[in-house]
Design a protein that fits this description.
Blueprint (H helix, E strand, L loop, with lengths): L2 E7 L6 E6 L7 E10 L2 H7 L10 E2 L3 E9 L11 E4 L2 E2 L19 E2 L11 E5 L3 E3 L6 H5 L1 H14 L7 E4 L3 H14 L4 E4 L2 H9 L3 E4 L6 H8 L5 E6 L4 H10 E9 L13 H5 L3 E4 L7 H9 L9 E6 L3 H9 L7 E5 L1
Parallel strand pairs: 11-12, 11-14, 12-13, 14-15, 15-16, 17-18
Antiparallel strand pairs: 1-2, 1-4, 3-5, 3-9, 3-18, 5-6, 6-10, 7-8
Helix pairs in contact: 3-4, 3-9, 6-7
């Protein structure tokens, strides 16, 4: 029996590799030989045992790119050797929301790692309708980051931000930086971006943002008000998932403004200044993953409008996965995306 290696998280803070059976792909399924995979913020929540929707033990990883290794029956449009990335969501296709094309709101939504298949592995099985070819101009590394770019792109679309509108991003992790890059590209206005990590703020500045160094005592709300004639920004994006940063986002927007929420909150009942919603007639909107966004993300990268490779700060091999997670868990680490060659 042929086998392959896949990583699991058996308990908080521990990576374990297991041998899995390498079966033939099922009808409509593509077997991918993974070339690169990356750690996501939600993977860190999982690694710490604090993911609000997943209990341990669990497979881990959902950002990947690779080559089509085998194809199942009834697969059309793919041949062995195609370079691809994967949209890792699993939707039922029959619920109220799936029937209306909103599969990201599926009543039975799941992800492959929640079903026992993670991207930190040698192979990955994906349905053909969630598999996307990569143009020759897009590297495996960039292909791996199409997934987080799609998260950011969906949030920007959901916000309704328009050309020339001001914005602020709270959080300089990969998603926050991608939101900032998209806002800079799509609106033509430098967004404010704040983070407690100076390295990430400096990275944001290099990528076109107006950086706010929280660790040095700079205050986002104060700086926003100073540079918007006391009005505040029209849009804010919360990409951290903490009570304090959500409050920052709410306080930084002007009357009639909108906050779009991307961060995963470990604390389910944060306290927020609720009267602001009425007094300023502001809106708070959630953004769930992505829906029909992967092709748009691929096109943005192919056109050179978003430079994904600039987010990769460390490159390791699959067997160094524990090291990669430990690195990202260190307070004050100077990392954005840790990527693994497989």
């Amino acid at each position: 029996m042929a086998t392959y290696i896949m990583a699991m998280i058996p308990e908080p803070g521990k990576i374990e590799f297991r041998e899995m059976e390498l079966r033939d792909p099922q009808p409509g399924e593509v077997l991918i030989k993974i070339k690169t995979a990356a750690i996501c913020g939600s993977d860190l929540h999982l690694f710490k045992g604090r993911h609000p929707s997943v209990t341990l033990p669990s497979a881990v990883g959902h950002e990947l790119a690779g080559d089509v290794f085998r194809i199942g029956k009834e697969v059309n449009g793919f041949v062995e050797g195609d370079r691809v990335t994967v949209e890792p969501v699993i939707s039922c296709g029959v619920c109220h929301f799936c029937q209306r094309g909103a599969y990201h709101l599926c009543e039975n939504i799941s992800f492959h790692y929640r079903r026992g298949q993670g991207a930190f592995a040698e192979y990955f099985y994906a349905p053909q309708h969630r598999t996307f070819k990569l143009p020759d101009s897009i590297s495996y590394e960039e292909g791996t980051l199409i997934e987080p770019l799609s998260v950011a792109l969906h949030a920007v679309k959901k916000s309704g931000v328009n050309i020339g509108q001001s914005s602020a991003v709270i959080g300089g992790g990969a998603i926050g930086l991608l939101v900032s890059m998209l806002l800079n590209s799509l609106t033509g206005i430098k967004p404010f971006l704040t983070d407690i990590n100076d390295f990430r703020v400096q990275k944001a500045i290099e990528l076109g943002a107006n950086g706010v160094f929280a660790h040095r005592g700079e205050d986002l709300v104060k700086k926003v008000m100073e540079q918007t004639n006391g009005l505040g920004v029209e849009h804010a994006f919360e990409a951290v998932g903490m009570e304090a940063t959500l409050t920052q986002a709410l306080q930084s927007i002007r009357k009639g403004g909108k906050v779009t929420l991307l961060g995963i909150f470990e604390e389910q009942l944060p306290k927020i200044p609720i009267n602001l919603f009425v007094q300023r007639e502001i809106c708070l909107c959630g953004s769930q993953g992505y829906v029909w966004d992967f092709k748009d993300s691929i096109e943005l990268v192919e056109q050179g409008r978003i430079k994904l490779a600039e987010l990769v700060t460390t490159r390791l091999h699959l067997q160094q996965l524990q090291q990669g997670f430990d690195l990202l868990c260190q307070p004050g680490n100077n990392q954005v995306k840790v990527l693994f060659n497989i």
